Protein backbone atom coordinates (compact mmCIF):
# COMPACT_ATOMS: atom_id res chain seq x y z
CA UNK A 1 0.00 0.00 0.00
CA UNK A 2 1.50 3.33 -0.99
CA UNK A 3 1.43 6.59 0.96
CA UNK A 4 -1.37 8.09 -1.12
CA UNK A 5 -3.66 5.11 -0.50
CA UNK A 6 -2.98 5.23 3.23
CA UNK A 7 -3.92 8.91 3.29
CA UNK A 8 -7.08 8.29 1.25
CA UNK A 9 -8.19 5.47 3.54
CA UNK A 10 -7.53 7.58 6.62
CA UNK A 11 -9.52 10.48 5.18
CA UNK A 12 -12.40 8.22 4.19
CA UNK A 13 -12.50 6.67 7.66
CA UNK A 14 -11.99 10.05 9.34
CA UNK A 15 -9.06 8.78 11.37
CA UNK A 16 -5.37 9.64 11.41
CA UNK A 17 -2.83 7.69 9.38
CA UNK A 18 -1.25 6.67 12.69
CA UNK A 19 -4.57 5.12 13.72
CA UNK A 20 -4.91 3.38 10.37
CA UNK A 21 -1.41 1.90 10.60
CA UNK A 22 -1.92 0.84 14.21
CA UNK A 23 0.72 3.21 15.53
CA UNK A 24 -1.76 4.99 17.78
CA UNK A 25 -4.84 3.61 19.52
CA UNK A 26 -8.11 4.91 18.13
CA UNK A 27 -9.98 7.00 20.67
CA UNK A 28 -13.67 6.73 19.98
CA UNK A 29 -16.01 9.36 21.37
CA UNK A 30 -18.02 8.13 24.30
CA UNK A 31 -21.69 8.56 23.62
CA UNK A 32 -24.48 7.40 25.83
CA UNK A 33 -26.64 5.07 23.76
CA UNK A 34 -30.28 5.89 23.27
CA UNK A 35 -32.04 3.62 25.79
CA UNK A 36 -35.07 3.07 23.57
CA UNK A 37 -32.85 2.16 20.61
CA UNK A 38 -30.76 -0.19 22.75
CA UNK A 39 -33.89 -1.89 24.04
CA UNK A 40 -35.09 -2.41 20.44
CA UNK A 41 -31.75 -3.98 19.51
CA UNK A 42 -32.07 -6.42 22.38
CA UNK A 43 -35.59 -7.28 21.24
CA UNK A 44 -34.30 -7.79 17.70
CA UNK A 45 -31.67 -10.23 18.96
CA UNK A 46 -34.46 -12.40 20.41
CA UNK A 47 -36.23 -12.81 17.06
CA UNK A 48 -35.86 -15.90 14.90
CA UNK A 49 -33.25 -15.54 12.13
CA UNK A 50 -35.85 -15.17 9.37
CA UNK A 51 -37.50 -12.24 11.14
CA UNK A 52 -34.11 -10.65 11.90
CA UNK A 53 -33.24 -10.75 8.20
CA UNK A 54 -36.62 -9.20 7.32
CA UNK A 55 -36.14 -6.33 9.80
CA UNK A 56 -32.60 -5.68 8.60
CA UNK A 57 -33.79 -5.66 4.98
CA UNK A 58 -36.43 -3.04 5.86
CA UNK A 59 -33.87 -0.93 7.72
CA UNK A 60 -31.49 -1.12 4.77
CA UNK A 61 -34.23 0.18 2.47
CA UNK A 62 -34.96 3.13 4.78
CA UNK A 63 -31.26 3.96 5.00
CA UNK A 64 -30.85 3.85 1.21
CA UNK A 65 -33.64 6.40 0.80
CA UNK A 66 -31.64 9.16 2.52
Labels describing this entry:
single chain; 4 helices; mainly alpha; 66 residues
For the sheet with most strands, the description reads: none
SSE-based structural type: mainly alpha
Average pLDDT taken over every residue: 81
Overall form: elongated
**Tally of contiguous helical segments:** 4
Low-confidence stretches: none
How would you portray this structure in words?
The protein has 66 residues and is an all-alpha fold. It has a domain at 34-66. It is 65% helix and 0% strand. The protein contains 4 helices and no strands.
Secondary-structure map:
Elements: H1 3-13, H2 17-20, H3 35-45, H4 49-65
How would you summarize what this structure contains?
By secondary structure, the protein is mainly α. Helices cover 65% and strands 0% of the residues. The radius of gyration is 18 Å and the shape is elongated.
Amino acid sequence: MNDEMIIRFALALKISTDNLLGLKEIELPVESPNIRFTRRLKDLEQLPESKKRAVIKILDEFIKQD
